[in-house]
Design a protein that fits this description.
- The chain is mostly helical.
- The chain has one domain (4-125).
- The protein contains six helices and no strands.
- Helix 3 (53-69) crosses helix 4 (74-94) and helix 4 (74-94) packs antiparallel against helix 5 (100-116).
- The longest helix has 22 residues, at 4-25.
- It is found in: Membrane.
- Pfam families: DoxX.
- InterPro entries: DoxX.
């Protein structure tokens, strides 16, 4: 569970989460994103107009990223990330297929780390 591979995957996932989380929270995003298709833009606009959804998702991404970087409560952080990574994947699958590669990367990295920490989840299934 503490292999170099696991450490690299954990840190790469953490950096991705922190970067995109900050991108959601800062007034002017530092990662320029291409204009999404019309339906995706309508969806993102509606989330932004709530005033809290994108801020909460960004905050959760940063929190999870920090937990992964500092190796604190990693199994818990990975479970918190499941609904976020699933929604990222579904958003790109149904609304903005051009970004599907990044979504797949986040979901796969999360899956790899869950697999590597499976011992922590075993008691949930007994």
């Amino acid at each position: 569970m503490n292999s170099q591979f696991t450490k690299i995957v954990r840190i790469v996932l953490a950096i991705i989460l922190i970067a995109f989380g900050l991108n959601k929270l800062l007034p002017s995003p530092f990662i320029p994103l291409p204009a999404p298709p019309e339906k995706a833009m309508a969806f993102l606009t509606s989330l932004g107009e709530t005033g809290y959804v994108l801020k909460m998702v960004g905050s959760m991404e940063i929190l999870i990223g920090l937990l992964l970087i500092f190796k604190k409560w990693v199994p818990f952080a990975l479970i918190l990330l499941v609904p976020i990574s699933l929604n990222i994947l579904l958003f790109h699958l149904f609304l903005d297929a051009s970004g599907i590669a990044g979504a797949i990367i986040v979901a796969v990295l999360n899956g790899i780390l869950i697999y590597k920490h499976w011992k922590a989840y075993k008691p949930l299934f007994n």
